[in-house]
Amino acid sequence: MQPYIPTPIDTTAIRLPASIIQLRERLAQNAHDTWAVQRMKEGWTFGPARDDTLKHHPCLVPYDALHESEKEYDRLMVDQVLKTICALDYRIEKRGR
User: Fold this and answer.
1) DSSP secondary structure string, 16-65?
2) Is 9 part of a structural domain of the chain?
3) How many domains does the structure of the chain reveal?
4) Tens digits of per-residue pLDDT, 28-58?
5) Nearest alpha carbon to residue 14 among 82, 74, 78
6) 54 near 88, Cβ under 8 Å?
7) 37 is in which domain, residue-wise?
């Protein structure tokens, strides 16, 4: 078996416009909520420390209650998705409503 060598799309030259920041935060919150729903379906509940045996996790709280470092993790993942979309020559636009 060949060693795994990750080859992500290069997004180093992509700069997200300021107009995307509100979208980024909403997507980060949604990513957290999606993760939390999946964990809860698997039987996980809130606990002050992660315990894989008891299925306790300290991040099973609303996004606003997360420690800033946890929010930043979600933001970084969303940033990479948004930058990859741009790197692939797609455009993100809010429809007028």
Assistant:
1) --GGGHHHHHHHHHHHHHHHHHHHHHTT-EE-SS-BTTTTEETT-S-GGG
2) no
3) 1
4) 999 999 999 999 999 999 999 999 999 999 9
5) 82
6) no
7) 33-87
